[in-house]
Every structure is written in structure tokens, then in C-alpha cells.
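Many introductory courses stop at the sequence. We go one step further.
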Amino acid sequence: MKHKVYYGEYTLQHWIDLMLSEDIIMPPYQRSFVWNEEMVQRMVKNLNHRYFVPPIIIGQYNDGGQIKNLILDGQQRLTSLLLAKLDIFPDKTKFASTLKVMMDENDDPTDNDDSYKSICDWTYRKITEGNRSIEQVKSSLSDKKDYYKHIDYHANDQFFENNYLGFCYLIPKATENSQQQRYYSSLFRSINAQGVALLAQESRESLYFLDASKANFFKPDFIESINIKTNRGITHIDFARFLALLSNYKAQGNYNKIAAGIKKDFESYYEDFIQAMVNDEDSEKFGKFSQMFPSDELSVRSEKLKERIHDLKLQEKTYNSIINLDIDFLGLVYYVLFEGKDIDLSRKVSLKDNLQQKIKLMKKDSNHTKNPSGLTNVRERIKASLNIYKRYSV
């Protein structure tokens, strides 16, 4: 895609003014704040010594005639400037009740990646929203002292007025929202191959916005309160995972063909699914989005799924195992969202009893509990959940 590129630099104070005035904003797929105190202090020191600090990348987005400037790269640097201006740092223990990652195929992950430990559910919008000046931000923080540490970054007013940070400003040639979203989402993924690495799921989330109209399909609001415990902490359930596995089954019509050829690289499998859906490809593996989910039915089915999750008391629930989660949800999502059916709530007690019996039976199988991410076990859970819900679908 042809596009214009402009370069320049602003004072550090001007960057803060741009954030507060919302002349620059974060796109929906931007990650949480992951830098630690030492990284913020190091950046302040580098700017003071006129060392090179990578420029901020801003992209112009034409939203139906309204121009928005999206922060594509540099959120961590800009957030750090604001923290230095305020002499604070968020207490990550206060914002870490739910990590901004999703579960993966491993019920009990074995990696010890420190990047999971440093992420908290916090961005600079926590303190700038509704505030248009530093004085207003400071006032809003007066009753939140327990949530922020005081740190002297040795950054006075002269530091912000006399030091500069560069920018790269992109203007895509395309004006259609879908083309712009595709360009910026792809660019975001390319940029973040550097620096503090994106978690696989964070990278994947940017793909949802290749077609912004489908973002809520992959990550509907009504599943945000449903979590699962892992050794990384409490994480959101991964609704896109349900969609990929079930789309694969519906297209293939065979449990044994679900994720065929996949060993441990499930993330590529999920990304292939998302690409197929946002492009409405006629995929042999996943089917065609517009055929599986007719536009005049998808919103109705989604609302019904939300209601049935509530009726079965699955909302605001924290699961302690992917086994429980899969059995409870896979069949429900399949018959309501994919098949457009409903669940016979007059037999709700019987349904929940059958789900619990199946869960207990699977947990007695040591091969299953020791390796819940094994493809054979994943397929077994899909089959079991669908068979149970089939008897209660109407």
C-alpha cells in the first residue's frame, strides 16, 4: 500500500500534551504497560544525556471523516514520560488480578517467561481518562495513593521543555476503514517483533482488527468475566480458541480431523483461522465465515449465547481446569452460535449433572489430566461436550 511518511520531533512536554488532549490515542489492540521502574529511569537518563531513543510511530486513521492519530509504536515510551512527569509508578500488584493474556492449550504451562510476571492490566488511560491537564491528573490520583508508588525520576520542567523525542507519521493512501485497519494491524505486528516481545495471544489480538466489524466476534464482551486459573495467575478464557476448533469440526465433520497436522504450534493454527474468517475465505479447514454465520443471524445467536451462559450460571466464573472449561462451553457455543439452536432450560438440572459427571470421569484418567493439551484429549473433550449438548438442543 502506498502511503506518505513524515518525520520530525517534539519536546517531551508536547508529547504529554498530545496524550492528555487525546490528539494521539491508542488503538484497541495495544498491549498493557510492561516496562518496569528501571526501564523508565533508564529512558529518562538516556534522554537527559541526548542518547538515541527510538522515535514514536503515529498513524493517521480516517474514521468516517474524523481523523484520529493512532499510537502504533511507542506506547511504553510515552507512558514512561507521563510517569516521569508525575513521579509515580503503578503498583502492579494492584492491577494484576486478571492478566491481559488468554489461556493456551496448556492447562498447566511449564514456561517461566518473566514477561508474564511483569504485565498488569494497566495503561496510561487509567489516569488520563477525563483529565486534560497534569493538574487534573494529579488531583484524580490524590485518593489512589495506594495504587501508585512515588519515585523521583529527577525530571524537572526543564527536562521536558528542553529534550526532544522524534516521530514518524504515516498517512495511508487508503481511506476505507477495512484497508486502513488491515494496514495498521499488520504494521503493529511487524513493529512488535522487536523490543519487549509480544505474548503470542497479544500479537494474535491485533489480527482481530484486520476487520474491525468482526473484532467482537473473536472476543465478545460477555466472556470477559469468565476466567481460568493457571500457574501464570488468573487469565481470560480464549473464545477465539473455541471458534477455531469448532469451525474446524463443522467444516470437516470429523473429530479426528480437528487441528490435523498440528503438534504444538497451536498459535499458527489460530492465526490461520482468524485470517480465513476476516477475509471470508472459502477455507477447506475452517469453512466460510459468511456461510457459517449469516449476517442477519449472527447478532441474534450471539445474544442468545450470552443469555444461555447466564442461565447456566457460567458467567463470572473462575475455572480451575481447562477440562471443566471445555466441557461446559464447547457444546454450548457450537449448538447456539454455529447451529443456531437453543438449549432446553426446562432440563437444565439434568444437563449440568451430565456435564459434571463427564468432567469427573475425565479427571479420573491420569493420561488426560497430565496432558490436557494433547490433541487426542482436546478432541475427546470436544466430542464429549457436543454429544451432551446435542441431547438438550432444540
